[in-house]
Amino acid sequence: MAPERITSVSGTALPIRGNNVDTDRIIPARFLRSVSFEGLERHLFEDDRAQAGDSHPLSNPSYQGATLLLVNANFGCGSSREHAPQAIRRHGIRAVVGESFSEIFFGNAVALGMPCVTVSSEAASQLQAAAEENPRTPFLLDLEGMLVSAGPLSVPVQLPTAAREGFLDGSWDATGLLLERYDEVREVAKRLPYISGWR
Amino acid sequence: MPSTLLQKVWEAHAVRKLPNGQTQLFVGLHLIHEVTSPQAFDMLRARGGRVMFPHRTIATVDHIVPTKDQRRPFLDVMAEDMLSALERNCREAGIRMLDLSSGLQGIVHVVGPELGLTQPGMTIACGDSHTSTHGAFGAVAFGIGTSQVRDVLASQCLAMEPLKVRRIIVNGRLPDGVYAKDVILQIIRRLGVNGGVGYAYEYGGDAIARMSMDERMTICNMSIEGGARAGYVCPDETTIAYLRGRRFAPAGDEFDRAAAWWRTLASDRCASFDDEVEIDGGSIRPTVTWGINPGQSVYVDERLPKPAALPSSDRAAVEEALAFMGLDAGQPIAGTRIDVAFVGSCTNARLSDLREAARIVRGRHVAPTVKALVVPGSQAVRAAAELEGLHQVFLAAGFEWRGAGCSMCLAMNQDRLEGREVCASSSNRNFKGRQGSPVGRTLLMSPAMVAAAAVAGEIVDVRTFGRGA
Ligand code: SF4
């Protein structure tokens, strides 16, 4: 597969407030009963939506077509299910901006080519407020300049170097990279006593 | 240079530094199950790839298996589809599967250790966040997503960021009625549910050194609930004694050579850690979660927090949790009525857990309003428990005695909460909706505390339970 470079994401933004939003909430386990990821987006935050009624941002038609998701701290904690970032990505979201992310969620999102960048807690709240006041506010996440802007507001974002380089040079899809030096992999395997048979 | 276990294992498995600064890490043992692997096999096929080291991957089925009637085909059509997909993928790739007819099936984090597949010094990956459990053996084990499952199938490698190590020292004697579960809940309460981000947790200290492998697994299992990607205990004589004679452990002379290597893996005495925390094990009391994340817990004789008394930054989260749980600020947790009692999950469904729960319920009966079930972690645990007659103790007390699987830990099979039911659970997550009903409520605690709650119909202190009153 040809590597795809990801340098920026633009569009409107969907704010989901709250810390420690876990992957069971993003996609409840009963929707994992499938052998594919297809159609998962229909169940994104399903239980939260049902409980919040019309007040949930996902039930608000003004946010339709959003390409950025705005969240708070420890987003995506809990179960390692890739179904969570898959559902978000399949909903049309191309990048997530938040205060912090659980590590497994972050890694899963990288593997899908969906950057998760962090901002200060104050900035997260300002960005969310901008999207809440006017859902049509244009957002731009610039991974080269490491900034996210919402209309006139512009704040710096953080992204670990490895992930950033991966997006910028298209190497975020690790499989190819991991297969490149197959001989070296065999060498390491041979050196491990539990593989070589405890000689 | 003195090094930590993490550094030693990492170095032994590092293939190379990737251009982006990550490490390409060889995965010594890859465990797969039916929920997070079928998409990975599909992705691999779509790229024309093949499974590179089929003998380093082992499959089991746990999340979706019915625990009542396990005859094939399952009545649950989707569960049957998921299991057949796994069987087909394993057959095609030449991967060994511990299926329902093998007598070896069970929750992936229970069967790996009990079969001796999990060994010190390995890197272990599985598409499941509680893979940290295997760290109890001094392995470096982490949960991965489905795209990474694809990577491991394709290359037996992962691209990983280095981890820092926080040493958590638990000293002192745990009081009667206080278990490994209480220790880890206490660690999470103290360090927070995201306190471990960026870290592996190394558990040490004399309380950990005295623990059995089962107890160490309970601790390492919930590292992820504290935000840590991995958790481990350095291998010692307890680890080695546990592994001797296990089905997939080395045998004969090989075992001795293996044990000699395992003994070299522990963190060096003067290794330096990125952070150290000390916990007084003697002061820990039986712990119960009252909220919607595993850090929201209190000792059984404490009262729930009052939002008004908290710093404003913490208030909203506590209010949200109290409202969801239908509990009042400042109320005692003891006396909270329960509807369901669940002894199970990869945290607490090994033989020693079942023994502790059985000890509490022996000669007693589950409260009439409570539905109680025991779901052993594996077929082997179930068989061993039956050999000791534990199933009779549970059945006589009014518990259901089920087949092995994840069951009500995440309710992907028929075992689930209904409506607003409150469940006393020995599992690891109390997130909203976790046990199958979007508005169901979960209180996490040790298996002994679950057993006591089942009998009393409400949360009670296992230290004084049954001592007259
Ligand atoms: S028992 Fe629960 S936590 Fe453990 S693997 Fe199964 S679903 Fe996951």
Give a verbal description of the structure.
The complex is a heterodimer of chains A (199) and B (469). Chain A is 35% helix and 15% strand. The model of chain A has no long low-confidence stretch (mean pLDDT 95). In chain A, the strands form two sheets. A four-stranded antiparallel beta sheet of chain A has the order 1-6-7-8, covered by helices on one side. A four-stranded parallel beta sheet of chain A has the order 2-3-4-5. With 199 residues, chain A is an alpha/beta fold. Chain A is globular and about 65 Å long. With 469 residues, chain B is of the alpha/beta class. Helix content of chain B is 32%, strand content 17%. Chain B has helices spanning 5-13, 38-46, 77-93, 108-114, 146-155, 180-191, 206-210, 213-221, 237-243, 252-263, 312-325, 351-361, 379-387, 390-396, 447-456, and strands spanning 14-17, 23-26, 29-32, 57-60, 96-98, 123-126, 140-143, 157-160, 164-171, 199-204, 230-232, 275-280, 287-289, 297-299, 340-343, 371-374, 400-401, 422-425, 441-444. In chain B, the strands form five sheets. A five-stranded parallel beta sheet of chain B has the order 5-4-3-6-7, with helices on both faces. Chain B has a five-stranded parallel beta sheet with strand order 17-16-15-18-19. In chain B, strands 11-10-9-12 form a four-stranded parallel beta sheet. The model of chain B has no long low-confidence stretch (mean pLDDT 96). At the A-B interface, helix 2, helix 3, helix 4, helix 6 and helix 7 of A face strand 1, helix 2, helix 3, helix 5 and strand 8 of B. The complex binds iron/sulfur cluster (SF4). Iron/sulfur cluster binds at residues 62-63, 107, 109, 128, 130, 345-346, 406, 409-410, 427-428 of chain B. Iron/sulfur cluster (SF4) binds next to loops of chain B.
